[in-house]
Amino acid sequence: MQSVWGMRTTWRTVGDGEFFCPECGGDRNYRRRTGRRKLAVLGLPLLPRGAAGPVVECSSCRRRFGAEALDHPTTVRFSAMLRDAVHTVALAVLAAGGAEDRTVRETAVVAVRGAGFEDCTGEQLLALVEALAADTGRLPGRFEDGLEGGTALAIELHEALEPLAPHLAPTGREGILLQGARIALADGPYSPAEREALTAVGRALLMGHEETELLLAAAARMPS
């Protein structure tokens, strides 16, 4: 039996793009849509009942999500963010000291290549560190004061890591910090500057100070 009255929504597409669909579990095309609700009598829309949306509609599964679904990076974007994060952490640790040591550079190269920069070389990393040192606004310096008293490199750490951190599991955040720790430890115990740089990494990853200190201590106890 047909219902006498009900609510009907007329949708209008206002944009499109690619997003990570929570239902499909992968990158999909989407349509951003807004709608108008109307009270329908005998199937005929008659009385307006306000706006609907905006929503994000997956072009594959047709499920609709709130606009906040677009905050989650696509798989491609997430991979690029992770790659850039590891690269920036490696540069921060190298700039804090040890860049001249071959073992340290080789450890950094392994980390950066593993993150996606497959053509990375020690010479390239050293050149970037030297470029940072040549720029008076980006000299390696103290990180403990964060953005207010730190260097441009500290700002870059926050720009590379803070947008990524909410999308990482705790083990993912720990993994990035531990990669930096392994680079710093390649030539022996942490120097004060390396420890400050790694503390800044933990802060940019939204990790608590105690958690960061425990991880750094655990990394230092691991056999090389």
What does this structure look like?
The chain has 224 residues and is α+β, with helices and mostly antiparallel strands. The protein is 46% helix and 23% strand. The protein has eight helices and four strands. It has helices at residues 75-95, 102-115, 122-134, 146-149, 152-161, 170-185, 192-204, 209-221, and strands at residues 5-21, 26-41, 44-58, 64-66. It has a four-stranded antiparallel sheet with strand order 1-2-3-4, with no helix packed on it. Helix 1 (75-95) packs antiparallel against helix 7 (192-204). The termini are far apart.
Summarize this structure briefly.
By secondary structure, this protein is of the alpha+beta class. Helices cover 46% and strands 23% of the residues.
Name the features.
single chain; 224 residues; alpha+beta; four-stranded antiparallel sheet; 46% helix; elongated
